[in-house]
Input
Amino acid sequence: MGHVVKSWKANRSAGHIWEARETGHGARVKGQNKERNNGLWAARHVGNDVTQIRGGNMKRVGFVEIVCCVGLMFLVSGYGQTAELAPYPVGVNLELTGRVSSLGIPVKRGLEIAADAVNAAGGVNGRKLKPVYYDNESDPAKAVILTKRLIDVDNVIACTGYALSGNAMAVVQTVESGNTVMIAGTATDKLWIPTKKWVFNIVPRQREASIPILIDSLLQRGAKKIAYIYIDTTYGQTGKETFDVVAKEMKVTPVIVEKYAAGSPDVGPQITHIKASGADGILMSGNVADSVMVIKSARDQGFTGPIACDYAIVGPEFIELGGKYVEGIVTTSLKALVAPELPANDFQKKIAMDLYTRYTQQFGIFSLYSGHSWDMVYLIAEALKKVDPNLDPTKKADLVKIREQLRDNLEKIKGYVGQNGTFNFAPDNHNGLGAKCYVAVVVQNGKWAPYKGK
Output
C-alpha cells in the first residue's frame, strides 16, 4: 500500500530545503544507497520550495526506524552544523568628511585592518567583531546624535573613533548616561582627567609625548627666542595649557604667543607679530591643513628659523600639502611611522612592522592615525577575552552585562604593548600611557624619518 508524508522540509543554516523521496529498491541517490524494507529514500536539494515525501512500495516501519531515517536526512543536509555566533558590534564614529577628514580616513583604515586580523584569528569568544561605521562630518553635534544611535539603535558593545578632540568631548555625557564604553583617539587630556567611568583614550598626552620633546628640538637647533602659535580649538587650547606648564619647567620663556580660529584663511597678521617679536624658533599646535598654512606664511614672510609642530600633523597629507615648505619640520609620532628603521631589539618593532606592512600594502603611504584605531580594536579584544562567553550581544540584558564587564576589564589591563605605547590602565587613569612613548621625527627628502638631533 502506498504511503504519503505530507509537506515535510528540513532547513539548513543557510535556509536551503532538501526533498526526501522513495525511489524504489536499488536506486542510486548522489552516489549513496540506503535500503529500508525494499524501498530507498533519496535526499535531493531543491532550493527553497516546500516538497513532499511520497512512498511507492514502502512497507510499514517502526517509529524508531522513521526517526533514524529523518536523522540521516538532517546529517546529509548539514542541519546538524553549529550555527555561527552573533558578532560583537563595535561602533565607529569618525570624521570621514569635513575639516579633519585627513585624520578620520586613516583611522577607519587602521580599524579595518585590526578588525580583519582579529576575526581571521577566530575572533573573541567564538564571535567576530563587527564594526558599525558612521561619518560625523567633523561636526560635534552630529557626533553626539550618531553616538546615541550607536548605543540605542545599533546596540554596540563600545563606541570608538573620535579623532577630533571637540567631538570626543561633546559625546562624553552621551556615553556616560548610556553606560557604554567610549575609546577615543584624541590629544586632549580633558577627556579623561578627571576620570569618567565609561571614557577611555589611547593617545598619549602632549605633556608626555610632544611639547617637551619639541621644545628641546628647537633648543638643539639653536633657537633662543621661541614663539608659540596654536589653533583656537579644544586641541589647541590643551596644547597652549601644556606649553605654559612645560616651558616653565624647562625654564623657557616664550617671546610671544599667538592663536588663530579654526577655518581661518590667513594667518599673515600673526606671523607679522611673531617676526616683530624677534623670535628665532616657532612651536605650533594645529591640524594638518592649518599647520601647513602657518608654515607657508612664515616662510613666505622670510622666517628662516626652525619650526616644530605638535603631533596632530603626522601623515602623508601634511607632506603632500606642504611640499618643499615642510622640509625639516620636526614633530613626534608613534613608532609605526618609521617602523622599518626601528632597531631590531625595539620592543614595539614587531607590532609596528605588522601594522606598517598591512597599511602600506593596502593603502600606500603610512599614516600615524591608523595606529590609534589598531589600539582601540586590540584593547577591546583583550578586554573581551574575560567577558562571559555565554553572554549574547543580541539580547538586551546580556548586552548590558557585556558593556559592564568590558569596561571593568579595560580598567584592569596592565603592561599591554600597543602602537601608542605600553598601556597600564587604572581606576584613576583611563589613558594608561607614560612618558617617552613617542619618538621625534622629521620631514627629510619628502618623507618622514627618525629625528636624530641637530
